[in-house]
UniProtKB/TrEMBL annotation:
Keyword Coiled coil: no
Record-given protein name: NAD-dependent protein deacetylase
UniProt: NAD(+) binding residues: 24, 28, 35-36, 103, 105-106, 121, 191-192, 214, 232
Functional note: NAD-dependent protein deacetylase which modulates the activities of several enzymes which are inactive in their acetylated form.
Pfam families: SIR2
Species whose genome carries this gene: Hominiventricola filiformis
InterPro entries named among the record's database cross-references: DHS-like_NAD/FAD-binding_dom, NAD-dep_sirtuin_deacylases, Sirtuin, Sirtuin_cat_small_dom_sf, Sirtuin_class_U, Ssirtuin_cat_dom
Keyword rRNA-binding: no
Chief subcellular location: cytoplasm
Cofactor: Zn(2+)
Gene: cobB
Deacetylase sirtuin-type domain boundaries: 1-239
Residues given in the record as Zn(2+) binding sites: 129, 132, 150, 153
Length: 239
């Protein structure tokens, strides 16, 4: 491990064009459950599996049940950025890191101070009335009851989160693709690399310093130039 960390340190020190691409594993050390780990959301007891509840169809047909699950499981508003979030923000301030691409919807990268963040799956911190477009924050959603309605027009409020069956925002994808394609060092961490189209973004990397940091194996391990196994916050705090 020390040899890999030394290589990673060298690459980071020598680069001023790093891009980080991360998933749920980046936030588990902040207390936010990982969708697919043993104690994650997918193992909770609900009448429907989370993939069903977090789908566009379910949101439309069972809106109240969607919000019951959403408030209980998705709005972890007391979570704080961990060592990984903080280190990435620090690298950006130093001019080393150019962008963070994340599958997470928790806003912890911004809370740590990161400015250039491409949120592939949206954010719980942005919620809009579907009728008039009025904005509501995550705290409002958490404290609402039943089906949240707009105070201005009575329209249904929907989180700016990409549900199953919904497409990703094209401008966000374009920004992420551009950043990854220009990167000197691409660090991928805390993601199983099984969720598409997000996992496909790795194909746009043209460099020869692809770093994979994960607690478990991924389908992309053989493509990595450097493989580091372990919790990402723990590893980043050693850099």
């Amino acid at each position: 491990m020390s040899e890999q960390l030394e290589t990673l340190r060298t690459w980071i020190n020598e680069s001023d064009n790093i891009v980080f691409f991360g998933g749920a594993g980046v936030s588990t050390e902040s207390g936010i459950p990982d969708f697919r780990s043993v104690d994650g959301l997918y193992h909770q007891q609900y009448d429907y599996p989370p993939e069903t509840i977090l789908s566009h169809t379910f949101f439309r047909r069972n809106t109240e049940e969607f919000y019951r699950f959403y408030r209980a499981k998705m709005l972890v508003l007391d979570a704080k950025p961990n060592a990984a979030h903080k280190k990435l923000a620090e690298w950006e301030q130093q001019g080393k890191l150019k962008a963070v691409v994340t599958q997470n919807i928790d806003g912890l990268h911004q809370a740590a101070g990161s400015k250039v963040v491409y949120e592939l799956h949206g954010s719980v911190h942005r919620n809009y009335c579907q009728k008039c477009g009025a904005f509501y924050d995550a705290r409002y959603m958490l404290e609402s009851t039943g089906i949240p309605r707009c105070e201005k027009c009575g329209g249904l409020i929907k989180p700016d989160v990409v549900l199953y069956e919904e497409g990703l925002d094209q401008a966000t994808i374009n920004g992420a693709v551009h950043a990854i394609s220009q990167a000197d060092v691409l660090i991928i961490g805390g993601t199983s690399l099984t969720v598409y189209p997000a996992a496909g973004l790795i194909d746009y990397y043209n460099g020869n310093k692809l770093v994979l940091i994960n607690k478990s194996v991924t389908p992309m391990d053989s493509r990595a130039d450097l493989l580091v196994q372990g919790p990402i916050g723990e590893i980043f705090s050693q850099l």
